[in-house]
Design a protein that fits this description.
Shape: globular
CATH architecture of the largest domain: 3-Layer(aba) Sandwich
Strand content: 15-25%
Strand order of the largest sheet: 3-2-1-4-5-6-11
Largest sheet: 7 strands, parallel
Number of strands: 19
Length: 472
């Protein structure tokens, strides 16, 4: 079967892709920027560059597709923006797909069994309404909290439990939900393809456990062997709760606000026979946590919500940033002769996250705290894998633009709050010279003042860093 897969650089679709290929399907992946997508070389894999907010690009979608997955959402966008973006994308998707031979579209939505929905869940329901009634059949799977290595829910729970021995938490921690393991989600998504029994139907999918968010935190703590105390108080407003999540976890404030808005709504599944129809065995909450921790321990996290997080950078694509500017820029260049190229490359490819930046880590942490205080991402995101890097990955407060180990080049773009734009490049040339280049394109007078203010720290940090990278 020829399948169109959207949102392939996102958390769910990135994991669904190898499942579909393993099942023998031919998969056409829609990506906004091919530089963010690393193909596995499969003959059954095709890639088209499509922006669902730009109708002109939708003609690249082939007309002979049999089925399609609609896995696009913009929950991480600034408050109020994601709803209009999701509606526009859904309309454009429907119009184009109705011009093709597609028979079935599968949409992953959220559980909507409350009369008053959060903005996020209401937006998901509007998308479902737009996709319904089209020429193609729609199968909607409605999930609540998805638990898996790299998922937003799992990582936020892990951050809270591992960082805070005592929590004074908002009352929404008593809200009940029905978490589902990422493995079960993938089984449902891949299982409904080509099943006429599921056409023009919607199904709630959730695991066997109905838990409050407080219970989820405490059960995670028990699995990790940690003693935690949680007191729930009613006085924390949604905005204060959002700041609480923002400063303790790796989430952005926009995502934290949307999450808090959604967490006030109870999401419990309506019973259905889909699991029985597809022969799916449920994975309970505790097992899903252990499976996720096992993947992290083995350094096998396939995708992370942090890499898929919506930003202006990712909306525009990263291609236009790969050519680092020179004119009108301040540039700090360092170089050093290295003796063991492979050893240095391994260090570069392991930089950031738990490994740190090899020199002056306390200064990096201070810069991250300052960035977080002014609304930036800070240093909380870490990295998805301790040894692997791909274009589009989040790396502390940087975004990976280019990573080619054979070419011996890694290029990062700053996502911290800055009065300008910044690039950091690591490159080893043919003479085994490691070149470390920091480029800053200032924005106005404040940008120039910022550069001169941090210049002494650059001299200290980059000089020490390049020596550490070259050391055997």
């Amino acid at each position: 079967m020829k399948i169109l897969l959207t949102g392939v650089t996102g958390y769910i679709a990135h994991r669904l892709l190898p499942v579909l290929l393993q099942q023998g399907h031919q998969v056409i992946c829609c990506v906004r920027d091919k530089n963010r997508f690393v193909a596995d070389g499969s003959q059954n894999l095709g890639v088209v560059e499509v922006d669902f907010l730009d109708k002109k690009t939708l003609n690249r979608i082939p007309e002979d597709v049999d089925a399609a997955f609609y896995l696009i959402h913009s929950m991480s966008a600034g408050s109020g923006d994601f709803e209009s973006m999701e509606i526009a994308c859904a309309r454009n998707f429907r119009e184009r797909l109705e011009e093709t031979g597609v028979k079935q579209v599968v949409y992953l939505s959220g559980i909507v069994n409350e009369t008053e929905l959060s903005k996020h869940l209401a937006s998901r329901k509007k998308v479902e309404d737009i996709l319904s009634g089209a020429r193609f059949a729609l199968t909607t799977l409605r999930a609540g909290i998805i638990v898996g290595s790299g998922s937003a829910s799992f990582e936020i729970i892990r951050d809270l439990v591992e960082k805070l021995p005592v929590m004074v938490a908002p009352r929404w921690l008593n809200t009940r939900c029905q978490p589902i393991a990422i493995r079960n989600v993938l089984e449902f998504l891949s299982g409904v393809i080509g099943k006429p029994q599921t056409y023009n139907k919607s199904y709630d999918i959730g695991g066997p456990d109905i838990l409050s968010y407080k219970e989820m935190l405490l059960r995670f703590a028990k699995i990790r062997g940690l003693k935690r105390r949680i007191w729930v108080i009613p006085v924390l407003s949604p905005r204060i709760s959002s700041y609480w999540l923002y400063f303790v976890t790796a989430t952005s404030f926009a995502l934290a606000k949307n999450l808090v808005d959604s967490m006030k709504v109870e999401v419990i599944c309506k019973e259905n026979d889909l699991a029985s129809l597809l022969g799916i065995q449920w994975i309970d909450y505790d097992t899903s946590i252990r499976l996720a921790l096992d993947k992290i321990e083995q350094n096998q996290v396939l995708s992370s919500w942090k890499d898929a997080q919506t930003s202006e950078l990712l909306n525009k694509g990263i291609s236009h940033l790969i050519e680092v500017p020179v004119h009108g820029c301040f540039i700090d260049r360092r170089k050093i002769k290295i003796n063991d190229v492979r050893h240095t490359l391994d260090k570069i490819w392991s930089i950031g996250g738990r490994r740190g930046w090899y020199f002056g880590d306390w200064l990096w942490q201070i810069r991250g705290i300052v960035d977080q205080l002014v609304g930036g991402v800070g240093m909380r995101r870490g990295r998805k894998s301790e040894t692997g890097i791909s274009a589009g990955d989040a790396l502390d407060f940087w975004r990976v633009l280019y990573a080619d180990k054979e070419e011996k080049r890694l290029l990062l773009y700053a996502e911290m709050k800055l009065p300008g734009e910044a690039w950091l490049e690591f490159k080893i040339d043919r003479e085994n010279i490691l070149r470390l280049t920091a480029t800053f394109r200032p924005l106005g007078v404040w940008g120039r003042l910022y550069w001169y203010a941090v210049l002494p720290f650059h001299g200290y940090i980059f000089k020490g860093m390049i020596r550490k990278l070259a050391a055997v």
